[in-house]
Specification:
Two copies of one chain form a homodimer. Chain A has 355 residues and is an alpha+beta fold. In chain A, 23% of the residues lie in helices and 29% in strands. The first copy, chain A, has two domains: 166 residues, D-amino Acid Aminotransferase, Chain A, domain 1, CATH 3.30.470.10; 165 residues, D-amino Acid Aminotransferase, subunit A, domain 2 (D-amino Acid Aminotransferase, Chain A, domain 2, Alpha-Beta Barrel), CATH 3.20.10.10. In chain A, strands 1, 2, 4, 5, 6, 7, 8 and 19 form an eight-stranded antiparallel β-sheet that branches. The model of chain A has no long low-confidence stretch (mean pLDDT 97). The interface between A and B is large, with 72 and 72 residues. Chains A, B: InterPro entries: Aminotrans_IV, Aminotrans_IV_CS, Aminotransferase-like, B_amino_transII, BCAT-like_C, BCAT-like_N, BCAT_family.
């Protein structure tokens, strides 16, 4: 396949399901659009990229994704501005990161041309599905999984790359309260924590259920050695504001290099907010809460955007965060969404037109 | 469903594929039998257990297994003795362990009755597929995966439990050489290393590819803190013989509690072999190799049975193991397979008749 001239054929649905959807009350990630992009890796190359009606996938029971969790994904969003123009936010960063994940999971990398042309063709096909109600957007889920067969614990010989889209409302409903984890862990040094690998998420579900049973919505993961440093929250990176200083953990082979995370760091620099990217001790958080210098805690991610955290739990105690006017979280949220929805200038070149 | 009287209906294939298979030259895990067992968790309970023709699975692209790696499995084998009787090896241990994995991965546990009756019904249906050539057996793969839909990173509301079977030859062909890992890691403290979770395997593929490029077949994983202690090999637990003492690492939340591993420990006790279950330093292995006391290194697992290791690599050096007559590995392999194939007495009650 000549990648410089990749053309994506489109097979359209006979009847759109769009009229069945209430676009003013969208859940997160449950409604899907009419079409999906699909491409198959077989005989050593990615083949047959196309947009087809959204449809079930048929797989052999020995497909390796079922047994060895060989699967990676990305999370992105498309936004429609008041003139009906469609925008993405830093999509090439997602494309690059998908291939960083692919390499670590022994999955063949997806050529940039296939990713970008497939994405654009799908978005143009389903552009009427992009919601415009406040706080809603089209959540985009590119994913690659091992569709090749066999019970031997080794990489597959066939992979499937799909992009699906879901018109979605907010990821969190209501206030977000987190528990700082003291028992379970998300990632190992030298492991796959930096990748958007399926297995990273499955391993978080049980500890998150335990936290939810105690009234929290998310877990803030800590290092697996001594649970001494905060890392990330699985669905989002974590930011801390102590006094007027913004802190976040450095990325590593345990922590995802979030697109929203790095956008916030750049906005903070742009606005002259003092920032420290360094390991953050749980102890430091607790002490700052106790002496009144802990002003904010918030999560940042594509799905969660910027989500203020109202309290955190640690060693059986709950620490409340103050309810600030004009918080960093609300400032960053406004600046990022204004760029995403084309309501403000984009000095960093983050907005990407779909045309 | 009344579990005490669970009946498994069987839908048979119209035409068996059995005559197409060369039972004297079986690969590992590539050939599948005519039927499979399937059962679905939905609306809060496991439903509709049945044996059906082996067939593709149809899933929504948003099925959570594709995104969050929420999947677990077991590995078992069925053996046919010279009189045509069919045996399993400690199957209730696999059933128990599947549910230990299930709990950690937030997957609903499979009732013992469904697991055991489903397994027995399937094996009776496909008993003509159990190979009898030396070194071959019917590899059995029970697995449970999240078939429920949605892009929200949370546990699914539907799961599928399948048992598939593959008449198989040996897992390894030829000598096995391992590399002791110094960079990558398999498991975190507080993670899912003790579970047979899909994600544990996907994360091993890339480091294993790197090792294979350097002439090794498997990686021996070490702790993620300092790569100081040997843990397990992903597809098998690791045993070391220094002098006449047998050593293996203790199980933990990082190391799988292997059925073959614990069977070997019991055989060693039975035979009066001095045994130490304790953390083993890589340094100790290297020193024992250098001073000539390192006699054996072998892997143990259902697929690999007992696999002698001919050399190990560490810090760019390769250490050869001696080629012993009457090695522990060969003794254990003989004792275990003699019990499995009903060629010897079974003092421990490990053999389980399928009838």
């Amino acid at each position: 396949m000549d990648l410089s001239t990749v053309q994506i054929p489109v097979e359209r649905v006979a009847h759109s399901k769009r009229s069945e959807v209430d676009f003013n009350h969208l859940p997160f990630g449950k409604v899907v659009t009419d079409h999906m992009f699909i491409c198959t890796f077989r005989d050593g190359s990615w083949q047959d990229p196309r947009v087809v009606p959204y449809q079930p996938i048929s797989l052999d029971p020995s497909a390796k994704v079922f047994h060895y969790g060989q699967t990676i994904f990305e999370g992105m969003k498309a936004y429609k501005d008041t003139e009906g123009k469609v925008w993405l936010f830093r999509p090439e960063d997602n494309q690059r990161r998908l291939n960083i994940s692919a390499k670590r999971l022994a999955i063949p990398e997806v050529p940039k041309e296939i990713f970008m042309e497939g994405l654009k063709t799908l978005l143009k096909t389903d552009q009427d599905w992009i919601p415009t109600a406040p706080g809603s957007s089209l959540y985009i889920r590119p994913f690659v999984f091992a569709s090749g067969k066999g019970f031997h614990a080794s990489p597959a010989d066939e992979y499937t790359f799909i992009i699906a889209c879901s018109p979605s409302g907010p990821y969190f409903s209501g206030k977000v309260s987190v528990r700082i984890e003291e028992t379970y862990s998300r990632a190992a040094d030298g492991g796959v924590g930096f990748a958007k690998a399926g297995g990273n998420y499955a391993g978080q579900f049980y500890p998150t259920q335990l936290a939810m049973a105690d009234g929290f919505q998310q877990v803030v993961w800590t290092d697996d050695h001594h649970h001494e440093f905060i890392e990330e929250a699985g669905a989002m990176n974590i930011f801390v504001r102590i006094g007027n200083t913004l802190l976040t953990s450095p990325t590593s082979d345990r922590i995802l290099d979030g697109v929203t995370r790095k956008s916030i760091l750049q906005l903070a620099e742009d606005e002259g907010i003092p920032t420290e990217v360094r390991k953050i001790r749980v102890r430091e958080l607790v002490e700052a809460s106790q002496n009144g210098t802990l002003k904010e805690l918030f999560g940042a991610g594509t799905a969660a955007v910027v989500s203020p955290i109202s309290s955190f739990g640690y060693q059986g105690k709950r620490y409340e965060l103050p309810d600030l006017e004009n918080s960093y979280a609300s400032q960053f949220r406004k600046r990022i969404t204004d760029i995403q929805y084309n309501r403000a200038k984009d000095p960093f070149g983050w907005r990407f037109p779909v045309e």
